[in-house]
Amino acid sequence: MSINLTTTQNNYVKNFPQNTPLKAAQGFIVTSLIHLTAGVAGKAAFLGGAVSATATLIEAVTRPIIETIFPKDSIITTCVQLVLAVTLTTTLATAMVPWVGVAHKMTSSSIPILAFIVLNSNAHENEALAIVL
Asked: What are phi and psi of 76, to 5 degrees?
């Protein structure tokens, strides 16, 4: 049992995405800028950036676990990671919005998708993804 646990821990550390803090910062800044240019209030724009950075961190933490579950299906792994990270953080943000007192205005979904593609265009196998919401 301890051998399996040690192997799992070593694989988790080995498969943990690189540059996670950098990608979280990129997601925060790009998401905040997209919202600010769309006319969203500053508090809401920064809350969106914080949610984006949180989604990036959740994606990085869950990636080694999901890659262990789906070792040969990279497309399924990526889809599960993104859906899990975005769903968890948007649910958390939706629950927090009444406490923070921020009104949110939806922006076009094409700009965040384009920004996500640009920020992650040179993503290697073991590099974190910058989530843009």
From this structure: -65, -40
CA distance 39 to 44: 10
Q: What is the pLDDT of residues 28-79, one digit of tens each?
A: 999 999 989 988 888 888 888 998 999 999 989 988 888 888 878 778 888 8
| E strand or H helix at 121 | none
Distance CA 113, CA 35 (A): 13
Using CA atoms, how far apart are residues 131 and 46, in angstroms rounded to an integer? 14
* Domains in the chain: boundaries: 2-119
Chain-centroid distance of CA 129 in Å reads 7
Question: Which residue, chain included where needed, has tokens 């925060």?
Answer: 28
CB 133 within 8 A of CB 51: yes
Q: State pTM to two decimals.
A: 0.82
Strands (E) across 9-112 are located at none
For residue 32 the two structure tokens come to 């905040």
Region for residue 126 given its phi and psi (left: phi exceeds 0; alpha: psi -120 to 50; beta: otherwise): alpha
